[in-house]
Amino acid sequence: MSMIPFLKSRPLLILAVVLTHSLSVQAQNAGTLTLAGTVTDAESGETLPGANVFIATSMLGTTTDGEGRYELPGVPVGALRLYVSVLGYEPAFKDILLRSDTPRTFDFALTPTVIELEQVTVEGERDRRWERRYERFVSQFIGETPNALQSQIMNKYVLDFTEKRGVFSAHAAEPLEIENLALGYRIKYFLKDFESDRSRVRYDGEPLFEEMDPATPEQARVWEENRQKAFIGSFRHFLLALIGERVKEQRFVTFGRSVSDGPMSPLGASSTEFGSRFPVDAYSIIKPGDAPDQHVLDFDGAIEIIFQGELEDPSYQEWRMSPGRSKDRYQTSWIRLEKGPTIVDYKGDVLDPYGVTFFGYLAFERIADIVPREYRPGRR
Predict the structure, then answer these.
(1) Number of structural domains, the chain?
(2) pLDDT at 234 over 60
């Protein structure tokens, strides 16, 4: 997922239960369907076996068979990104809004590309500068939260790095294989682009999740608690609270902020970057869509989101370069719409994943702090 960079401290069981219950009727009426299609070479027309086909940021995925065909059952109705990737080809995706449980067909024709695997591996094994750059990449991509400390890239030598004119870039010859021992997920991350400079971090790609098997009941309990912490206060949590008309009950407070036209830092969008703050009705930023299960996020300037259910993690203060602040603050974030009004479905999924830019606490949380799109507290 592409973004300008985005722990929670305490589980909020009551909030989670209320939120899940408030949307249960919608979820029961949602339904699922099967997606199918064929993946081919765009130049030769030949079918591509073994291609990865999955719903981005989910646990739903498959591979094409010997004739390049795929079938993906159990796909929930709503907004999703259908992503396809195979080694040696440019990945492709389709942003889809499914409004009924009628089976759908989506074919993909992938464009060949050249990847020098051996060169990347050799450089990774021998170059000390590579190791320093790898550590920098991990802190910016995996994150610097407590969950990030328990996450590891298992195939790190598929990565290659460059740095030109103050822009740090990363490229992956194969999908990154990440183990998150804090949340209990294996993540296959299909990294397309990554770059950072002194003020911003941007990356483009999609994760596919797989649940790990806990070694003990205690580990299963810890994983569920940590997943709940990752979900509570997240942008998906906020959108679900908006849709369910439970913003106040879920401890969210919103304000409007004016913005300048210049570049802005992800490190919190301070008052020097945003204009004055003014009250705004949270429900004024979301409107009915063209279908009963569709909504539109629409506002001018920026929206400040304060989650009063949890305080900032101390590691966030260090990330903002303000350690030792005398007074703890609630988690505070800012969002902007980069492409105008953005469609949101009943599950809190944004149809265009790149339409919303995050600042502040939501920018602090990276790959180590996300859960699959189908996750809800108290439900596996």
Answers:
(1) 2
(2) yes
Collapsing DSSP states into helix, strand and coil, what is residue 325?
A: coil
317 burial type by CB count under 10 A (0-12 exposed, 13-18 middle, 19+ buried): middle
Q: Which domain holds residue 328?
A: 230-369
Structure tokens at 324: 């030792």
Q: 281: helix, coil or strand? A: coil
Residue 42, domain CATH: 2.60.40.1120
Q: In this predicted model, what pLDDT tens digit does every residue of 267-290 receive, in sequence order?
A: 444 445 678 899 999 999 999 988
E strand or H helix that includes residue 179: strand 176-180
In a domain, 10, yes or no: no
Please report the DSSP string for 12-73 in residue order: -HHHHHHHHHHTHHHHHTT-EEEEEEEEEETTT--B-TT-EEEETTBS-EEE--TTSEEEEE
Q: What is the rounded CA–CA span in Å between residue 346 and residue 291? A: 10
Indicate the pTM of the whole model. Answer: 0.83
Largest Cα–Cα separation, the chain: 64
Give Cα separations from 212 to 116, 181, 202, 221, 229 (angstroms): 32, 9, 28, 13, 18
295 within domain boundaries: yes
